[in-house]
Amino acid sequence: MRALVVNCTLKPSPQPSNTEALAATVIAALKGHGAEVDVVRAVDLNLKPGVETDMGDGDDWPGVHEKLLAAQILVIASPTWLGRPSSVAQRVLERMDAMLGETDDEDRPVAYNRVAGVLVTGNEDGAHHVISEISGGLADIGYTIPGQAWTYWHLGPGPGPDFLDDERGHDWSVSTGRAMASNLVHAARALGAMPLPAPPS
Questions:
Q1: What's the pLDDT at 24?
Q2: Where would I find the NADPH-dependent FMN reductase-like domain in this sequence (predicted)?
């Protein structure tokens, strides 16, 4: 089983990423269940604006698209900015919109029988809003969102320290991330054993 984690931090490599740090704990849990995990740091790529799979010369999205199609599990990891998903996360979802028009050999949308979850960091409140926005977009595209397929870290409303600067709340975020990984893996296995059919015409 293969998983893909798309880190939608605004910080290009090699800057430290709070989102990457929390994602690492979920990645470890996924690997503990036998999943192979690929990681994409979207801000490091040239992801052109648009809603097509390939926006032409220099567009790095086709490579991400290949990884999406190779993965049974997807995790979108985003910081919270102004109470919303990062602009990078929005760009990723917009590019994934092209998948709505793509089908497999059995006429199923390509996101069918794949599961997805969301991971959020931020030193402000709004994590549940970010989870809802991203999960809603992924469900529209065709992903199955298992129960409790998310984890997050923040220290309440208002500005404050970041995940990498403060140990408070880490135990809860990590244990919730382990539950998230388990739910994603087991839901993906269930869909693999009994896949969703193509939508009725």
A1: 98
A2: 1-130
What is the rounded (10 degree) CA torsion for 162, 165, 166, 171? 80
Alpha-helical (H) ranges within the chain are 18-32, 61-70, 87-96, 127-141, 170-193
User: Domain extents for the chain?
Assistant: 1-191
Residues ≥6 apart with Cβ < 8 Å to 83: 124, 125, 126, 129, 130
Beta bridge partners of 119: 77, 151
Query: With pLDDT > 90 as the criterion, what percentage of the chain qualifies?
Result: 87
Question: What pLDDT is recorded for position 84?
Answer: 93
CATH superfamily of 1-191: Flavodoxin domain (3.40.50.360)
Q: What is the enclosing helix (H) or strand (E) of 115?
A: strand 115-121
